[in-house]
Structures are given as C-alpha cells and as structure tokens.
Amino acid sequence: MFNKILIANRGEIACRVAATAHRMGIRTVAVYSEADALAKHVAACDESVPIGGSSPKESYLRWERIIEAARATGAQAIHPGYGFLSENEDFARACAEAGLVFIGPPASAIQAMGLKAESKRLMEQARVPLVPGYHGADQDPAFLKQQADRIGYPVLIKASAGGGGKGMRAVDKPEDFEAALASCQREARNSFGDDAVLIEKYVQRPRHIEIQVFGDTQGNYVYLFERDCSVQRRHQKVLEEAPAPGMTPQMRQQMGEAAVAAARAVNYVGAGTVEFIVEQRGGGEMNFFFMEMNTRLQVEHPVTEAITGLDLVEWQLRVAAGEPLPLRQDELRIRGHAIEARICAENPDNNFLPATGRLRVYRKPRCSEFVTARVRVDDGVREGDEITPFYDSMIAKLIVHGDTREQALARLDEALAATRIVGLATNVQFLRYVVRSRSFSQADLDTALIPREQAVLFNQEPVGLPTAAAAAVAHALEREQALEGADPFSRRDGFRSHGAATRRFAFEFGGRHQEAELTYQHGGGLQFTVDGASGPLDWRRDGDALEVQFAGRRVRTHVHALGETDHVFTPQGATQIVAVDLLAHAGEGAVEGGRLTAPMPGKVVSFAVKAGDSVKKGQALAVMEAMKMEHTIAAPADGTVAEVLYAPGDQVAEGAELLKLKG
Ligand code: ADP
Ligand code: ADP
Ligand code: MG
Prior knowledge:
This protein is α+β, with helices and mostly antiparallel strands. It has six domains: about 5-105, Rossmann fold, CATH 3.40.50.20; about 130-200, 2-Layer Sandwich (Dna Ligase, domain 1); about 205-330, D-amino Acid Aminotransferase, Chain A, domain 1; about 335-460, ATP-grasp fold, B domain (D-amino Acid Aminotransferase, Chain A, domain 1, 2-Layer Sandwich), CATH 3.30.470.20; about 465-580, Glycoprotein, Type 4 Pilin (2-Layer Sandwich), CATH 3.30.700; about 595-660, CATH 2.40.50.100. About 25% of the residues lie in helices and about 35% in strands. It has 18 helices and 40 strands. The strands form nine sheets. Strands 14-13-10-11-12-15-23-21-20 form a nine-stranded mixed beta sheet. Strands 25-26-27-28-29-30-31-32 form an eight-stranded antiparallel beta barrel. A five-stranded parallel beta sheet has the order 3-2-1-4-5. Helix 4 (about 90-95) runs antiparallel to helix 5 and helix 12 (about 405-415) runs antiparallel to helix 13.
C-alpha cells in the first residue's frame, strides 16, 4: 500500500479521500488555489502545496504543477477525485510517465469512454443495449437531420464530448432541428472545444439508473448494484438513491452484467459508473439502454457505500496498489435503503440560479462525516467559508440510511430541517418539498419529476407570517432583556421609558409590507397581534432553540439575525422576515429603474440586443455563464436599450451593470 498520496482536487471530494487515507494510515498531500488557501481540504491533509490562481485553468487543471507537487512531496500516487483532471487521459498518461500511480482506470479506458459517440460504437460491439440513434462520424447538418427524421421525434442532440448536463438539446419537431443543432454545436465548441454531436431517440418519462462497477488489475469485475438518479434539474442530479425503487433481482442482474461487460470491453480498472437510461413500459416493465460511462468515482458514491457497507475510496486505493478486489460478486449484499441530497448554493425559485456568498451560519444535523451512518454529511466547507464563483455550487451532500425507503425518507426530511444555512440562497427547503412531494414519496420516479410537481415545489411559504413574526419579535425581545439584565437603565422598550403600553413593528415578509402590534399587560404578559391573529406571546430558550408560543401554537424555532433579516427555522421549514425600522426607511422604495445588473460574478456569453433596440418585458437581453451554467438576463419592463456596457467574453463582478434600459 502507498505511504503517501496527493489529492488533485478540492472541496468535499478532497476531504472524502483524505478521510479514508487517514484511516488507512496513508499520508496525504493537498493542492490548492489562491481562493482555497484556507479551505477545509487543505486542513484535512498532512501537507499542502499551492498551485496557482483561483480559476481551475490556473490551478486544479494545471497538471504539470500537480505532478511536480507530487514529486516534490514524495507522493507515490495521485487521486483525481471527480471533475477537473479525473477523466483526462493525458493526465493519467503523464502520471505514469512521471512514475506516479494514477488512482483510476488506465488512460486507454478513459479515452475509450471519453467521447459519447465513440463509446457507443464500442458498446454496440460489446452487445450492450443502446438507445436508437446515430453516433457516427458524419457531421454534415443535412445528414444529421435525415438521421433525426429516421429516428423519429422527439430526438436528443448530444455533444459527444459533453458532460455535467451541458451540450444537450431536445428537439420536438423537424422544423426546430437545424437551430437546435447549431446551438448545441456552439455550446459544445465553447465548453468542450469539440463540436461533434450524436443524435438519439428522446426517451419519454425515463429513469436514470446507473450501475457502480469495480475492476482490478487481475481482470476481476463486480457490480455494486444500482443508484437511481432520476430526480434532476437541467439534466443534473438532485437526489440519488439505492436500491432503485421497483428494481427486480432479474433486472438488477441484467443491468449489472451489462455494466460489467461495458467495463470489460475497455479493460477497465478501479471504480466506474455505467449510466443507463431506463424506459418505463406498462406493468412495471423496464427497458434499459447504455448512456455513458463515467470513468471515476461519482458524486453519489456514498449511497452505494451505505447499502453495501463498503468504503469505495478504500477499494480504489487497494486496486491502484495492485491488490485484488476485496470481495466477489456473490459476497456482495444490499442492506437497507439510502438517499443522497445535494445541497447547493442556488435559488430554486429563480430557475436554480447559482448563488455565491459567505456561509454566515452553517449548522448540520447530528451526523457522521465521510462514513456511513443513519445521517452522513460530506462537505468541504465550514461555517464562515465562502462559496466562490470559481467552482461548482455544491455546498454539501446529505446522505441518509434506513432499513426501508420510508425510514430513509423520514430521516432525510428531519436532517434537512436541521440543516441551517444563512448567508446565501440554498436549495434546502426545495429539497424538502421534493422529498415530501407525492411523486417522490411514492417512488413515482422519472426525469420529469420536478416539472411535474412544480406546483408544490416553487414559491412556497412553509412557515407563515404569524409564526415568523412571533419568532422574530420573541428573539428581539429576548435580546433586549439580556441587555436590560446587564444594565437596568438601558431598557429601551416603550412600556417602561415612555409609559406606553403598545409597541408597533413593521416587517417585510413574502415581498409585502406587514405590521404587528405588541401590548404589554399589567400582569406582565404580552399580547401580540399580526395578520389577523391575536393572542398571548411567550417563549422559552432551550439551548440554541427558541420555543415560541403564540396563537395556540408552540413552535420550536432557531432564529439567526443577519443585518435586519431574521432567518427563522422551524420543523415545517425556513423563512425570512425583515424587521423594518419605519423612520430609517422613510422615503425609500422608489424604483431605481433601467439598471440591469449581473446577478452573480461570471462571464458574459452574448447580448441578444444592441443600443437603440426596443424590448418587451421578459425578453432575453443577455446570457451570462457562471458556475458551469448559463443564465439569461431578461428585461424587467418594456423599454429601449440605451447602452450595452460589456462585450461577450468579459468577466463581470456581481452587481455589475450590464446594460441600460430607458422606459
Ligand atoms: P456525477 O456524474 O458524479 O453524478 P456530475 O455530473 O454532477 O456528477 O459531475 C460531477 C462533477 O464533475 C461536477 O460537480 C463537475 O465539477 C464535474 N464535471 C463533470 N463533467 C464535467 C465537464 N464536462 N466539465 C467540467 N466539469 C465536469
Ligand atoms: P452527461 O454527460 O451530461 O451526464 P448524459 O448522457 O449522462 O450526459 O445525460 C444526462 C441526462 O440527460 C440523463 O441523466 C437524462 O436525464 C437525460 N438524457 C440523456 N439521454 C437521454 C435520452 N435519450 N432521452 C431522454 N433523456 C435523456
Ligand atoms: Mg451522465
């Protein structure tokens, strides 16, 4: 076994690899960019080496530097994690040439599976079922159109070099094909430097079910069962679970054997995932087709660890060191049910726009880190850390394990309720809505689950004004009393200093101005009135929780104040309420008008308009790219473009004015 390895990655996966290495007595070397100098993954390793600037191109993708760092520190092997260099065959080769072990498959296997079209040609030979389609070399647009017509609509155009949900266009009818092809090729060229595409049948209401495989250098293969990753947004996974609901032992064996055949066809070694798209026929019958193979450890590997009781990183290290697979196929068993939720910095109510910012508050449920438990959290950040625009928007992975799916679901909901993040937008509350939705809770899974359930997933208010306002007021009064306790003359409430028995509060809640009233009673009690509800208000502190009693309800809350905003967390969900100081804000609220600013730091991809154009409310004006995704900036109102302030390709800061509109 190795004495020392270098981890060529950052964030949660770097910490994850370090945890297993540490347990196995292997020393670890971290590499880090400027933005990550104080990052958790650096602290998690025994040594660390700076490798350059914050953007991946200047650091995590500079493999000469990484190999140099491995040599300088005496590391014997490099673990690439996922993303970055993990599926780069040139890097795998360069490691070998430098006398370092690449903890992953041989470069030839990465290459064979690297392009979706070529890998499909190989899979055809290996008799792995494929979605009907065209994955040949002819890229003439007229020929591709003929192929689409032959396959029958809807079809999916995919960038052969694509990944991460990018470079895909669904086409419903022949008239739309040409434009979709051009746009797909453009994105493929920009994102992957290769505009080759393949065309395949768009499977209706499909499930995404993937098989975890493992191979060793002696030619042994096993499959570690399946993961269902059907719940997606923008073709990216949101929730992953194992085993897949409805999976029969026969189908599991068929898919497992097909996945092993795929791995064998490319002499695969190490951890890999074969992704299948599954067509649901009537009566629970399912057809599966090969989609692609990811030649690396997958983000969602912890659900497989939970149901098998294994440590996949340990297996990777053993196989890379030349050991045989620790277990045979007939020694592998499934235990219970596991679900992973990806907690991301993003705003689900605004088309999942990624968010950046500081984790002012980051509290986790009671959990283990990087090892299977009822509740496990894998993350690469700590409270106070920043989610920057340089890397992807995942904050943490929450993995639950139960005896049954129902138990896992209940644990997931409870763990999400106990996950409190303040400082930037997250999808935590959205995940709870998904978990509780009819489709997910009844395991009615397919990739259209989120759009189908949208009525209960978006723009919901889980807490309600009375509870939010009561919690905010109770929290404020508790703090005032704490001050008063320290110095009785500092008491500032209306009752004592001015003899007035009533205090008024104003709030912003759910985008609306709201008012509330608090009356001090002679007996010492408080009467609170808000939004038509009226009754005694009382509270009790219990550790970091505040039990608030109002209008006949007792709610256990956590209130975190950030500036004027109170972030109120309850078992039902989380909300925000802004305490408005009426005097300080008098006269505010005039619309600034005409300014269109970048919602996040990123790159300007294109402008759809030029100065002098008249635009309609909602019309797309510009496209920005940040955190792996494209975002469209739309006109907030009808008007005329006065000025365009940047050019495509420009890097802009959050809040930068992109163009000026006149009314
Ligand atoms: P998985 O396939 O493991 O479920 P993703 O598809 O979300 O997970 O990809 C895992 C990570 O790998 C992403 O967070 C991203 O950083 C990276 N990644 C995957 N594909 C690409 C790609 N084509 N270009 C850049 N990064 C990618
Ligand atoms: P990536 O490399 O970006 O992960 P994949 O080929 O794995 O690309 O596809 C990503 C997702 O797109 C799948 O999980 C599935 O939701 C959807 N998808 C892919 N192929 C098809 C298809 N033929 N029909 C319907 N949906 C598909
Ligand atoms: Mg995929």
